[in-house]
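RECORD TYPE: protein structure
NAME: Malic enzyme
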Amino acid sequence: MRDPRYNKGLAFTEKERETHYLRGLLPPAIVSQELQERKIMNNIRQYQVPLQRYMAMMDLQERNERLFYKLLIDNVEELLPIVYTPTVGEACQKYGSIFSRPQGLYISLKEKGKILEVLKNWPERSIQVIVVTDGERILGLGDLGCQGMGIPVGKLALYTALGGVRPSACLPITLDVGTNNEQLLNDEFYIGMRQRRATGQEYADFLQEFMTAVKQNYGEKVLIQFEDFANHNAFELLTRYGTTHLVFNDDIQGTASVVLAGLIAAQKLLGGTLSEHTYLFLGAGEAGTGIAELIALEISRQTKAPIEECRKKVWLVDSKGLIVSSRKESLQHFKKPWAHEHETVGNLLDAVKAIKPTVLIGTSGKGQTFTQDVIEAISSFNERPIILALSNPTSQSECTAEQAYTWSKGRAVFATGSPFDPVEYDGKIHVPGQANNAYIFPGFGLGVVMSGAIRVHDDMLLAASEALAQQVSEENFEKGLIYPPFSNIRKISAHIAAKVAAKAYELGLASRRPRPKDLVKYAESCMYSPVYRNYR
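PREDICTED:
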């Protein structure tokens, strides 16, 4: 009863109460898991404040694991915004104040030289997926230091609920290397180390020790997902460890894969191919350059043109304006491939007028940057402009669904990063899609784990995008949606896992032999079920 993995509360049967000496420790009523689920959903709906709902869900996870996942799977559309973006962002900001029981593993600079020992303190031996953050760039909220733990915990809850990876095989980790957030350093409830961030060689050595220890302790088939690292470290880590470890960066690769899926699906809605479009991004960080690269890669695969040629269809605007070749000397390395020949353009509106894009994508982390002028401009030379406002949480979205549909006179094909309600314009209901990474990473992770893949290859990301795009039905298209509803997410994840695993086998990266005949069925059979077990 005290162990969340085995606890069933009032659902313990007469026989179980007798056998396991639980008589008298529980009230006499015996109820079903379904009734427990109904009761807790009623309780959660009583809370007006999303953060209270988040705390109630976390409390349930610490008390009764199977019931927590049953709730999340059966009410995914209602609870996803609670356990993940946007509410998890607020939870991270206030993590010190709401902290009651530790979840996951905290590895700080104090543990330097002893990281392997710390990993051995985690009670589970068989780990398949690790989500790790250093808390430097949490969503669009910036440096939250040690309090970024809410993100790995939330992500792994989704690996289980949506992708079916066993909870005991998931390990959330926060690397505490300090924080530069003055507010946190002066907050009496802050739970992390009170010092400025380690950088340079000290940081690199710490990460090197961590990556080596993970491989030594869990083998090379453990998937390490980097999460919410700052731009300069994210690219560096992916490049450095991509060839030696099974690593995946959700902000760069997961976001790219889910956006590409939406763009592939939009071609079915509008007709035509990806190569016929011109893409303009606001934001040239991890998400922006990651999506841009995957779009160029897919166009290159489809047209057989060299990738350098395909990159020319994609333009990026950063804080200093359009990225053009005359700025090349001063650009960070990850922006350089996107510096094309063009005169300098200082802002987004002028860039829209100059480039005349058919697709506008926001990954800036800055709210209200797709202004009325910008949306009216792109709508003036496109019958159906594709507009994706991807920044999280909701407050940081480049524009709202209502603004996008109103300013484009209902013509935009629109999706966002955080959820928005349907909008009525001119007598028609428009349902905005949500380009949520939760469509991709749980199924992607399951595909990697079930095939025993030893490396992540870009072709596996393209396979995931294509699998997701295939799940959008005619009925979804009629509503203007370019993503399927989340209610079918486990079915969608099984299809994504199967396509990712198939690609891993094709590339010779899979180590699980023999290859299962029907990969979709195999994926479904691997998925964790939250239904209570009977105890002898």
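COMMENT: The chain has a mean pLDDT of 96.
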